[in-house]
Write a structure and sequence with these properties.
- About 25% of the residues lie in helices and about 25% in strands.
- The protein has about 575 residues and is α+β, with helices and mostly antiparallel strands.
- A hairpin with a 2-residue loop joins strand 8 and strand 9.
- The chain starts with 14 loop residues before the first strand and ends with a strand.
Length: about 575
């Protein structure tokens, strides 16, 4: 028995309330080491009572570890527990708060989860779990009102630079909501739309004002109302890690120096302020027009919590995406969550975090992150083709082990964004690689995420070329790809196993990956052949229908033939 691999502690992600009656408990052991794992548990105040027992099931399997899980429940929700482990060599041992022992422990040293407190339960955002997200860059999506175009607006579709503007606006988004509805989109996330001097708007001047080149508050209200009428939710981008240098508070510091009441809103190294050679902390490295905010300062916290509440109350948005979220104080994020959720308890709070985000996804701060680690795996497996299926799924499952189960269903599984090259460009123009990455987006745990134009084959390297104008000329769109995305959206909406289902790997070898998603009586088999060769799989399941083609399969069929670089999804016969 590999005792060094065994791990449990009384905190997320190893123990948490699923609801007010069920406590989820997870134990990590060495991969393939155990024959069985059993949890012993009882009320922590009932010292004379015998322990209840419950078997634990395999939950996640990675190269080095296997995770076991179960739900336990007691009348008064006060828990004392330990684990019994039986390995494949017949050895039995016990794991408790003090470590490992060969003898069954008593109450002393058992793990304690003192009380399943209602205030500690994470409340999932159910509507978001079933959504399909579309990210757009407002200046480049559609110009619906030429009267608010900035001076120097270029003709639509001309080549971009970091400073060019093309007149895209909120009216343009309203005009194209029918397109998004037909595509199957349920949620739109915008890059910032508040007043700013740049085309990207991440240097905010006024957090209470829509940029006049995009429209005004009335246009924003109309956009949200029309979107809601079509069943589409709206998420704004909040840049609370830094402001623009023309934001009123920083302007006051420029004007008054050390006497400014706002000097502690920022991290000023010396006075007077030097915008050319910043003597203050900025976003990134030396970006003087984006001074970093001090999100520990109570005044800063109060100001931006009110901003968050204002746009929900005044315009009716459904959530926030928080820029550079991993550089903001955790205390700020807890206050922001509390304030926003008081106004709208189902508001969806997303963080821009480009790595694992366990410290932010404990259930008390964010509901989700932009899942860049998912993108990294897709790049390596589908675009660069430098890892195999078993490695790809091992990375994904290791990340999944870090988070609350409900939050895993809410991560935004992107493959490209305004901060990355287009995925098809990363794939050297191979559309089949993009299709397979999209297939994994729609069938793995989490929320599928489309960056505007990916669905019609738009290409581009890093900013600014990943931020070109949306292609609206149907003759220049990839209609095959657009139809493929519409089909994926339809399949996901019609099969709740892809939203709520359990995940189990069937096979991961070379460049072939297959897995099951199961929910209630529904089971789907997903097969992805990322190989340049035809592949054959023999599966122990009865296949009913292939959902991409709607081909009816014979119930006795056990062999699956996969053409090179293809994806299939089968509905399995109910047992």
């Amino acid at each position: 028995m590999n005792k060094h691999a065994i791990l449990h502690n009384t905190d997320v992600p190893f123990v948490y309330g699923m609801d007010q009656e069920n406590l989820r408990v997870i134990l990590r052991v060495a991969a393939g080491d155990m024959d069985s794992v059993t949890i012993y548990y009882k009320d922590r105040y009932d010292g004379e009572a015998p322990y209840n027992t419950a078997p634990m099931e395999k939950y996640i399997e990675t190269e080095f570890f296997t995770f076991y899980r179960t739900n336990i429940s007691l009348e008064y929700q006060r828990y004392r527990y330990f684990f019994e482990l039986k390995d494949k060599n017949g050895e039995t041992g016990y794991y408790y708060e003090r470590g490992f022992t060969d003898k069954k422990p008593g109450d002393a040293g058992a793990f304690n989860y003192p009380y399943l407190a209602l205030g500690d339960l994470y409340e999932e955002v159910a509507w978001a779990q079933e959504a399909i997200v579309y990210q757009l860059f407002p200046d480049r999506f559609f110009n619906g009102n030429k009267e608010n175009d900035p001076d120097g607006t270029l003709p639509w579709g001309k080549e971009v630079s970091t400073t060019t503007m093309f007149g895209g606006d909120l009216q343009g988004i309203i005009d194209k909501l029918d397109y998004l509805k037909k595509l199957g989109v349920d949620m739109i996330y915008f890059t910032p739309i508040f007043e700013s001097t740049s085309n990207h708007k991440y240097n905010t001047k006024d957090y209470y004002k829509i940029d006049p080149y995009f429209g005004d508050i009335e246009t924003a209200k109309k956009m949200v109302d029309v979107a809601h009428d079509k069943g589409i939710r709206i998420v704004f981008d909040g840049v609370f890690n830094h402001s623009g240098s023309d934001f009123f508070a920083f302007q006051d510091v420029i004007e008054k120096g050390e006497k400014s009441r706002y000097k502690d809103w920022y991290f000023i190294n010396s006075f007077p302020i030097d915008l050319e050679k910043p003597n203050y902390i900025t976003f990134g490295f030396g970006e003087g027009y984006m001074p970093k905010l001090n999100t520990k300062n109570p005044e800063v916290v109060d100001y931006f919590v009110e901003v968050g509440k204002y746009w929900i109350k005044e315009v009716g948005i459904d959530g926030w995406r928080l820029d550079v979220c991993d550089e903001i104080d955790h205390k700020f994020l807890r206050a922001f969550r509390e304030g926003v959720k008081k106004v709208y308890k189902d508001a969806f709070i997303i963080g821009e975090i480009q790595h694992e985000g366990a410290a932010f996804l404990r259930g008390d701060q964010l509901d989700s992150t932009m899942n860049y680690p998912f993108r990294d795996v897709c790049l390596e497996f589908f675009a660069k083709r430098n890892i195999t299926a078993d490695k790809a799924i091992d990375i994904l499952e290791n990340y999944r082990s870090l988070y609350h189960e409900k939050i895993n269903k809410q991560l935004l599984n992107l493959i490209d964004s305004h901060d990355t090259p287009r995925f098809i460009t990363e794939s050297m123009g191979r559309k089949d690689s993009l299709k397979l990455a999209a297939a994994l987006q729609y069938t793995y745990i989490g929320i599928p995420y489309i960056y505007y134009g990916t669905e019609v084959g738009m290409k581009g390297t890093n900013d600014p070329y990943s931020r070109r104008c949306m292609v609206w000329d149907e003759a220049k769109q990839d209609n095959d790809l657009l139809s493929y995305y519409k089909k994926l959206n339809k399949i996901r909406k019609e099969n709740k196993a892809l939203v709520h289902g359990e995940f189990k790997v069937v096979e991961a070898r070379d460049m072939v990956l297959s897995f099951i998603r199961g929910y209630q009586e529904e089971r789907l088999l997903v097969v992805i052949n990322n190989s340049q060769e035809e592949e054959k799989l023999v599966v122990p399941y009865s296949l009913e229908e292939e959902l991409l083609t709607n081909e009816v399969i014979g119930a006795d069929t056990r062999e699956i033939f996969m053409e090179p670089m293809t994806f299939k999804i089968f509905k399995l016969t109910k047992e």
